[in-house]
Write a structure and sequence with these properties.
Strand content: 15-25%
Distance between the termini: 25 Å
Number of domains: 2
Radius of gyration: 18 Å
Number of strands: 6
Shape: elongated
Helix content: 40-55%
Length: 194
């Protein structure tokens, strides 16, 4: 490069390493980016996710220790969907909603559909899944559901929504921290590149 790379440049390389599953280069990019932006929690989370996907639990633990030592905390993930002019907000594992029992029942049925779609077991009750279950429960005639998420959608949830979209006559749009994902007929507009 004709100039010295800054934090966003190293961060972009770190993101590319996640997409291409290059753990070794990710470690180099991570070390550089945290030198330049030591309090940017997103880079720590990204590196932790890279280690997690590679099955390197020691790497995940090292990143978490770094975060704890530096006093960094990840913002909790949440998703919301608008229904009758009101936003219904969900966090992972949330059971505070008045329709919680029905939402979890709908989510169980969606998980069974995802299994039929070849997605197998899905881990965690993430916020976007709860928002989708709520929307399907309450907006049965709707052909398009928009869910807003404050963080990036995880790979597991991305695969889950793709699988569900094969069986449900509805288009799912999830606006995460970086882009809009349009799920329809078992595929996503990002072509799994996000």
């Amino acid at each position: 490069m004709p100039l010295q790379p800054d934090g966003p440049v190293w961060g972009a390389l770190l993101g590319a390493c996640k997409i291409h599953k290059n753990v070794e280069l990710a470690e180099l990019a991570f070390n550089k980016v945290v030198e330049l932006e030591p309090t940017n929690i997103g880079y720590y989370v990204l590196q932790s996710n890279i280690y997690s996907e590679a099955g390197d639990l020691e790497g995940v633990a090292r990143v978490r220790v770094m975060m704890r030592e530096r006093g960094l905390k990840k913002d909790p993930g949440y998703s919301y969907v608008e229904y009758k002019g009101e936003n219904h907000l969900f966090v992972a594992g949330d059971k505070r909603h008045p329709q919680s029992k029905e939402i979890y029942g709908t989510l169980k049925r969606l998980e069974n559909l995802a299994k039929q779609g070849g997605e197998g077991e899905n881990s965690g009750v993430h916020s976007e899944r709860l928002a989708i279950a709520f929307a399907l429960l309450n907006m049965s005639s709707t052909k398009e559901i928009l869910v807003i998420k404050n963080l990036r959608i995880c790979g597991d949830c991305h695969r889950f929504v793709k699988a569900v979209s094969k069986f449900v006559d509805c288009r799912f749009i999830i606006r995460d921290a970086t882009l809009f994902h349009h799920f329809d007929g078992g595929s996503c507009s990002c072509k799994d590149y996000w």
